[in-house]
């Protein structure tokens, strides 16, 4: 049977985190009550005029330059016409012929090798309103225009991905870059990152691409990967059976994990783009480009290399820390407050990520302060608290934002390293467990472990286990 | 190039405009005369001329990222033919 190869392209829509909308002064704050962040411009009232938010261009330019794109000069806005109740003007202001950025690329590691995906186009557009479909009124839909006019950046790749793992690497690279560039919060559960994929298959020995199928309704990494896997399998099977692939748009069904053809009228895709007469061309000058370029922050790849170099971390640990900007920020802030690098990294890549995964959160959602992290590390290093006590403290400060020292004091977790104080407890344990003590003296090593355990229990984990073992041995041998 | 009445009907549909039989014929004739005027313009060699998107030589008009005035929900909804739960209400768009 012939081998088949897939070509996958991705469109990423990212909501930019400017204070106000792209063409009006309405706020972009999430979670506001319906239709409270609206004005004549974003409601599409006749006679209202859009004016471009300078910060949107600044944010978009960061992404354009970080992804090695050429800047179109002039860059123009166009009207993309279609009818849907989420679109008040019956057109969306977008860019088509002269997008702000084009012909760039992104590189990212996949299975230890760098993979390059070309970026066809990066453009600015406005978001549409949000529709809800109430359960208790099946005849109507409701429109909230708070989201209408929110600034979106659309990043369109060439079909340069060939496997789900490359798609995953690409999405991670894009999301990470958006966070590092400080242009989007990129929260998928709030719809701040949305995707559309195109998938085609071809015989592996043929360069010409197969017929492409577009997939919409992809709102999470999981959905994109599920849809891509499903489409590759479906199309490969169809081609092997000698069937022709239809050029069509399909929708991903999250529940049943399948794609299904979207029912569309044949005229639906005729957007009739034309230049938006209300918005003047955008001509970003050399100075602006130079300034944004000079201020571009270090992205994940570079930072990873630096963490290895500066803090002697393993490449693996540095990779985990830098994958999430907030995590790497916490690490560096804790180290700058005196925490030794290795244990600080271990807390973050170990217990912290475990707790976050368990709760389905990211580092940016947690309340852990770098001061508290530095304190935990210091308390353990100085033997002030035991390992189990440290974990108990950490689990609390990770989400409460409290000081570790305060929690230790409150819970009375200070480790007992005082010989006399511990000695008294040990005498009690030996008296209460005479047979275990006898067994140890007869040469049964495991009895010692049991007795140490009893000491820990009696002190509620506060005994310094090393000291407890030493004292027990000494006392048992002396008796 | 000549526009057919069917193409005019298609464009009308895209614009959600309902045409009578007479209007369709009338607009087909009118649009065809506009197109033939542009065909005349197209005989000019414009290979060295960049496409013009705007008629006035103005670029880079910005506003700063400062909050402006928004409408209250009541104001925003006051002309809505139908409303419910502080939203504009429209006929159901999905099943
Ligand atoms: Zn507005």
Write the layout of secondary structure elements.
The complex is a heterodimer of chains A (479) and B (95).
Chain A lengths: L3 E12 L36 E2 H13 L3 E2 L6 E4 L9 E4 L6 E10 L2 E14 L3 E3 L7 E5 L6 E7 L6 H17 L12 E11 L9 E6 L2 H20 L8 E5 L4 E4 L12 E2 L10 H10 L4 H12 L3 H9 L1 H12 L4 H19 L10 H12 L5 H14 L3 H8 L7 H14 L1 H8 L4 H13 L6 H14 L1
Parallel strand pairs in A: 12-13
Antiparallel strand pairs in A: 1-10, 1-11, 3-6, 4-5, 4-15, 6-7, 7-10, 8-9, 11-12, 13-14
Chain B lengths: L4 H10 L6 H21 L20 E2 L9 H5 L5 E2 L2 E5 L4
The structure holds zinc ion (ZN).
The site of zinc ion (ZN) has 8 residues of chain A, from loops.
Give a concise summary.
The complex is a heterodimer of chains A (479) and B (95). Chain A is built from 15 helices and 15 strands. Chain A has 479 residues and is of the alpha+beta class.
Helix content estimate of chain B: 25-40%
Specify the biggest β-sheet of chain B: 2 strands, antiparallel
Shape of chain A: elongated
Element order of chain A: H for helix, E for strand: EEHEEEEEEEEHEEHEEEHHHHHHHHHHHH
Main β-sheet, spatial strand arrangement of chain A: 3-6-7-10-1-11-12-13-14
What is the string of SSEs of chain B from the N terminus onward?
HHEHEE
First-residue to last-residue Cα separation of chain B: 42 Å
Instruction: Give the beta-strand count of chain B.
Output: 3
CATH fold description of the domain at 5-43 in chain B: Histone, subunit A
Span of the ends, CA to CA of chain A = 80 Å
Percentage beta strand of chain A: 15-25%
Roughly what fraction of the amino acids of chain B lie in strands?
A: 5-15%
Q: Tell me about the biggest sheet of chain A?
A: 9 strands, mixed
Low-confidence parts of chain B lasting 5 or more residues at pLDDT below 50?
none
Radius of gyration of chain A: 30 Å
Mean pLDDT of chain B, to the nearest integer, reads: 92
Annotated CATH architecture of the domain at 5-43 in chain B: Orthogonal Bundle
- Largest interface, C-beta closer than 8 angstroms, per-chain residues: A-B, 55 and 38 residues
What's the count of strands of chain A? 15
Task: Please give the share of residues in helix of chain A.
Answer: 40-55%
Described by the principal axes of the CA atoms, the overall outline of chain B is flat
């Amino acid at each position: 049977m012939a081998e088949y190869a897939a070509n996958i392209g991705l469109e990423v829509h990212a909501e930019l985190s400017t204070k106000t909308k792209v063409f009006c002064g309405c706020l972009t704050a999430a979670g506001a009550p319906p239709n409270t962040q609206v004005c004549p411009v974003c409601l599409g009232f006749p006679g209202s005029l859009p004016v471009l938010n300078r910060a949107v261009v600044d944010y978009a330019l960061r992404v354009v330059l970080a992804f090695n794109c050429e800047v179109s000069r002039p860059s123009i806005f166009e009207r993309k016409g279609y009818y849907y109740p989420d679109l008040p003007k019956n057109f969306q202001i977008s860019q088509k012929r002269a997008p702000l950025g084009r012909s760039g690329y992104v590189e990212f590691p996949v299975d230890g090798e760098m993979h390059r995906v070309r970026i066809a186009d990066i453009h600015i557009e406005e978001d549409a309103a949000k529709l809800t479909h109430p359960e208790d009124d099946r005849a109507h839909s409701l429109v909230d225009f708070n989201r209408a006019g929110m600034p979106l950046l659309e990043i369109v790749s060439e079909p340069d991905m060939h496997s789900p793992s490359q798609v995953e690497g690409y999405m991670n690279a894009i999301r990470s870059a958006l966070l590092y560039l400080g242009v989007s919060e990129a929260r998928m559960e709030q719809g701040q990152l949305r995707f559309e994929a195109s998938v085609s298959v071809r015989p592996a020995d043929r360069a010409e691409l197969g017929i492409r199928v577009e997939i919409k309704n992809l709102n999470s990494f999981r959905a994109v990967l599920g849809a891509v896997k499903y489409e590759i399998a479906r199309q490969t099977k169809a081609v092997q059976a000698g069937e022709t692939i239809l050029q069509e748009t399909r929708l991903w069904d999250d529940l049943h994990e399948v794609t299904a053809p979207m029912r569309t009228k044949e005229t639906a895709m005729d957007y009739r783009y034309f230049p938006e007469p209300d918005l003047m061309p955008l001509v970003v000058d050399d100075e602006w480009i130079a300034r944004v370029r000079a201020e571009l922050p270090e992205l994940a790849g570079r930072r990873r290399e630096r963490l290895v170099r500066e803090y002697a971390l393993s490449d693996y640990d540095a990779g985990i820390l830098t994958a999430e900007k907030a995590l790497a920020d916490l690490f560096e802030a804790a180290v700058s407050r005196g925490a030794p690098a290795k244990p600080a990294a271990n807390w973050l890549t170990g217990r912290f990520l475990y707790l976050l995964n368990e709760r389905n959160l990211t580092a940016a959602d947690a309340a852990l302060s770098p001061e508290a992290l530095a304190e935990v590390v210091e308390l353990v290093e100085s033997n002030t608290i035991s390992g189990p006590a440290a974990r108990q403290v950490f689990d609390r400060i990770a989400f409460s934002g409290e000081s570790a020292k305060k929690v230790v004091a409150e819970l009375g977790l200070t480790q007992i390293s005082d010989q006399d104080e511990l000695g008294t407890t040990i005498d009690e344990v030996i008296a209460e467990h005479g047979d275990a003590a006898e067994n140890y003296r007869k040469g049964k090593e495991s009895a010692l472990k049991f007795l140490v355990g009893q000491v820990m229990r009696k002190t509620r984990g506060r005994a310094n286990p090393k000291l407890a073992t030493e004292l027990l041995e000494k006392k048992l041998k002396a008796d | 190039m000549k526009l057919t009445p069917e193409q005019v009907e298609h464009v009308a549909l895209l614009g959600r405009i309902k045409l009578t039989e007479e209007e369709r014929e009338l607009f087909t004739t009118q649009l065809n005369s506009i197109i033939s005027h542009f065909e005349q313009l197209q005989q000019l060699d414009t290979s060295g001329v960049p496409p013009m998107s705007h008629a006035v030589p103005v670029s880079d008009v910005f506003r700063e990222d400062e909050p402006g005035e928004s409408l209250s929900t009541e104001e925003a909804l006051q002309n809505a033919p139908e409303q419910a739960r502080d939203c504009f209400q429209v006929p159901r768009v999905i099943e």
